[in-house]
Amino acid sequence: MGQTFDIDSARFLADLHHLRSFGAEGSGVVRPAFSPADVASREWLSARMQEAGLSPHMDPAGNLFGLVEGPSLLVGSHSDSQPEGGWLDGALGVIMGLEVARAAREAGGPAISCVSFQDEEGRYGALTGSDIWSGSTTLAEADAFRATDGQSFAEGRAAVAHLAKPDFVDPDRFTGFLECHIEQGPVLDQVGEAVGVVTSIVGLRQLQVTVSGEQNHAGTTPMAMRKDAFQGAVRIATLLNDRFRNLVTPQTVWTIGHMRLLPNASSIVPGKAVFTIQWRDGDADRLDRMERVIDSVLLEVENGTGLNISADRLRHDLVPVPMDARMQEALSKAAGQIAPGKWRSMPSGALHDASNLSRMMPVGMLFVPSIGGISHDFAEDTAEADLVTGLRVLARAAADLAPSCAF
Questions:
Q1: Is pLDDT above 90 for 251?
Q2: Cβ distance 154 to 143 under 8 Å?
Q3: Closest CA to 95 of 323, 390, 354
Q4: What DSSP element (H or E) covers 48?
Q5: What is the pLDDT of residues 189-198, one digit of tens each?
Q6: 51-71: string of b/e by CB count within 10 Å (b at 16+)?
Q7: Which residues of 359-379 are buried (b: 16+ CB within 10 A; e: fewer)?
Q8: Phi then psi for 65, rounded to 5 degrees?
Q9: CA atoms 362, 153, 208, 237: torsion sign
Q10: 298-315 per-position pLDDT tens digit
Q11: Is the dihedral of CA 56, 364, 131, 126 positive or negative?
């Protein structure tokens, strides 16, 4: 067993609630990457790291590390938010990382560093900060990414130029990565359990589909003569739901989440429909088979309707990522000790920075319940008792996993 240390749950909750004040909006937060609220929160977090005896280091992508000397376990998440986000999404893991690293340092070890990654929520890309740090995307490539308001990542990161250093932290200095996150789903809340030890993070694929028909008058064009792009899109959605039925599992999800109709007028038959199809599963082979179904449905609707249908990939595929066995073992052991009979092993249906870090080091994840399964919404919340239980489990596992040191 590693060197044990005591966490300060009151200090942890105070810091977590203070981070909530940056971009506060009702019960939630508005703190997109590189927004004034995000920059202010990173200035505050950097100061808290300094006060804890950690060395703050913000890299050119805006990732903020709190470092100890020598090899260490890295603990953290992200602190940027959705355009209308919950107060715990990402922020919980960041402040847990701060508290665990701070408490370990106060105890003279073990060696634990913390981190807040940038733009996990995808204002410019998706998992952008950890994408750059893990080498999946170069800084030059990311600089060309643009937010929906047209601002580039390069323009955004100029807002932290006064904090950022020119170099990236060497990943080889870390022995592994732990991330605690709200579940963002209903399972733990529904069954009344306190924590979930994550077994894997699902893979994700996404297409943008364009259905091109014929724009015409909505009052004078007979139904039999129409080439209605929206009706083609509806046909695609209906067929996908039917064809996936015998292929998917209860954990598989697929979503048509964004659609534009052109010209989007009530008295005009739509000439074009542009929409996204996103699908997620923990099995790469099933993702492949779902894609073959999608391809066949698009071709079938095109041949059967006379519409022109094309599909383009919106981003690189994210493959399913299993969590490290030793990390899972340490988290499971800690959960059994601190929350006996109140924990389970479970997959993650959401993406996390741990996906990217798995290419560089062993990774593990822990979930705490989301009340009502709500996330990406101002109503997102978790009971404070569950937050503290998650912190205690994470700290005990970190004590087993982190390298020993003496400060």
A1: no
A2: yes
A3: 390
A4: helix 36-51
A5: 999 999 999 9
A6: ebebebbbbbbbbbbbbbeee
A7: ebbbbbbbbbbbbebbbbebe
A8: -105, 145
A9: positive
A10: 999 999 999 999 999 876
A11: negative
Q: Is the pLDDT of residue 176 over 60?
A: yes
**DSSP characters for 312-357?**
EE-S--B--EEPPHHHHHHHHHHHHHHSTTSEEEEEESS--HHHHH
CA angle, 376 then 379 then 382, to 5°: 90
pLDDT in tens, 41-60: 999 999 999 999 999 999 99
- Residue 165 and residue 385: Cα distance in Å, rounded? 38
Q: Which whole-number Å values give the CA distances from 58 to 113, 169, 259, in the listed order?
A: 13, 9, 37
Residue 14 tokens, joined: 């105070």
Amino acid at 23: G
Across all residues in the chain, what is the average pLDDT? Answer: 95
Please tell me the distance from the alpha carbon of residue 167 to that of residue 165, in angstroms, as a whole number: 6
Pairing of strands 321-322, 195-201: antiparallel
Total-model pTM = 0.86
Quick: pLDDT tens for 323-378: 999 999 999 999 999 999 999 999 888 779 998 999 999 999 999 999 999 998 89
- What does the pLDDT read at residue 387? 98
Enumerate residues 6+ apart whose C-beta is below 8 A from 216.
226, 268, 269, 271
Instruction: Judge contact between 115 and 64, C-beta under 8 A.
Output: yes
pLDDT at 314: 77
Instruction: Please spell the DSSP secondary structure of 128-171, one letter per residue.
Output: HHHHHHTTSS-HHHHHT-B-TTS-BHHHHHGGGTTTB-SSPPPG
Tell the residue number behind the tokens 């323009």, with chain if given. 155
Question: Helices 36-51 and 9-20 sit at what angle, rounded to 10 degrees?
Answer: 160
**Contact (Cβ atoms closer than 8 angstroms) between residue 314 and residue 155:** no
Q: How far is residue 150 CA from its own chain's centroid?
A: 22
Q: Which residues contact 23 (CB under 8 A, 6 or more apart)?
A: 29, 30, 31, 35, 37, 38, 41, 81
Burial of 47 (0-12, 13-18, 19+ CB in 10 A): exposed
**Are the C-beta atoms of 29 and 22 separated by less than 8 Å?**
yes
